[in-house]
Amino acid sequence: MTTRIAHAGLAARRMSAEQAAGLILPGMTVGMSGFTGAGYPKAVPLALATRIAAAHERGDKFALRILTGASTAPELDGALARVGGIDFRLPYQSDPELRARINAGQIEYMDIHLGQVAQYAWCGFLGKIDVALIEVAGILPDGRLLPSTSVGNNKTWLDLADKVILEVNRRQPEGLDGMHDIYYGTALPPHRKPIPLLQPGDRIGEPYLRCDLDKVIAVVESDAPDRLGRFAPPDEASRRIAGHLVEFFHHEIAAGRLGDQLLPLQSGVGNIANAVLGGLREGGFRGLTAFTEVIQDGMLELIGDGTIEMASATSLSLSPEGVEEFVRRIDFYRQHIVLRPQEMSNHAELVRRLGCIAMNGMVEADLYGNVNSTHVAGSRIINGIGGSGDFARNGFLSCFMSPSTAKDGAISALVPMVSHVDHTEHDVGLVVTEQGLADLRGLSPKQRARAVIAQCAHPDYRPMLQDYFDRACRDSYGKHTPHLLNEALSWHQRYLDSGSMR
Ligand code: 0RQ
């Protein structure tokens, strides 16, 4: 077990998770590893939760500010939220316990573009970072760190935190060695230089994380897998969404607006995004690239069969079966995957330069193409904006997808006005549901509304949307983006009052 810790000085700083948790004090800001359920620390947060629960039993206050890469897992977000150990959290979460407490108003949550977290931290907007708690796959003889299945904000937390606690997880495959690319050329304005990345697979940095060894106060050994759920098997709706997109891509190739290999793909989190990737294989594409933040099972399969030749990301968010496949052919995947810090995987400059095709799930879109990715009925958060904004605004093509209804048809995903805006109409090129695809590029607001109603709305809701739009065109204060303000959010209120938007 100790061979994973090849630096003698750091090996001497080994201690139990409980001892390490004892070094984290109430009120501290802790920057943790972890991105979409991959590469999060698995031992110390659990010990910390026990310590916090004991403090609360004694009547002592004990809560932390927790910063991560993105979502983690029950052992981190779930365990700490359950004992009331988090009073501030950023930048993305998907844990049911944590979500419930955020929505109960007990935890302050900052939902922020994932590509901008590092800049926020470096500029001091997040305050002092007391401890970096980082999972790694190993420590080299010279003290450099072999990252694990996600890179996330680890570089930033290691660089900025006063103290560092390392969790060396021997369950993480050693074959990850060589897959990462950690770029150390970032700077703050006005000293920034162009980032020298021209293709998704370019390596512009180093395979390991640097760490000031004097800051390391504990090294904890762990042996536990990333805990990731399974994806829902693609249903009819997601297969049809995928079909519309693939047809659109072929149409764009025929029109000369895309080449046979498309442009680097970005694919978001969730079941729909995962299923859509499966559709690309059936579309007959080969030799594609991806410049994305998360590699889910759907993308791993495309890499595995050559549909995708090269993928850049910050995290491997795989089901247990996906992990098995990844580990079994890790030498192959190392040739086709580069894992980067999230400030690079989601960098506006790179997304714009490469011309990414951004494909993300949504909660709802409105007539004009504004998209809500995060909130139910305007107030209850699901996960967070994640990286969807980094890609939607800067990509070559920005596509949002959802079944046209949710909750067995009680909710329409196409509404007169979104109840929360994550992506404005200016950042949304395509809206796709199982009903069809609305290509909103080059259209005025009223033209967009007609396309959304005709192509995307469910037949049960289409007449209602058409009726709203017709009356808005007649009675709206302005006729550029017609709205009836006293009615625009009435669908959501009706759902809250009666359980249905109908
Ligand atoms: O809830 O499970 O309770 O039924 O939302 O919906 O249809 O399974 O879709 O898994 O693709 O997730 C937007 C959440 C879609 C995701 C979202 C309810 C629905 C269900 C999930 P239940 P589906 P997906 C890069 C990109 C933001 C982050 C992002 C997301 C649950 O895509 O989090 O894009 N995106 N990151 O019932 C009420 C509606 C609803 C609704 C769906 N209109 N009203 N509930 N649901 N539509 C990666 C990262 O950033 C890390």
TrEMBL record:
Species, as recorded: Rhodanobacter denitrificans
InterPro entries hit by this protein: AcetylCoA_hyd_C, AcetylCoA_hyd_C_sf, ActCoA_hydro, ActCoA_hydro_N, NagB/RpiA_transferase-like, Succinate_CoA_transferase
Chain positions recorded as CoA binding sites: N383, G387, K407
Keywords (A to Z) from UniProt: Transferase
Name this protein carries in UniProt: Succinate CoA transferase
An annotated Gene Ontology molecular function: acetate CoA-transferase activity
GO biological process terms held by the UniProt record: acetate metabolic process; acetyl-CoA metabolic process
Family: Belongs to the acetyl-CoA hydrolase/transferase family.
Name of a matching Pfam family: AcetylCoA_hydro
Stretches assigned to the Acetyl-CoA hydrolase/transferase C-terminal domain: 322-468
Active site: E293
Domain Acetyl-CoA hydrolase/transferase N-terminal: 13-221
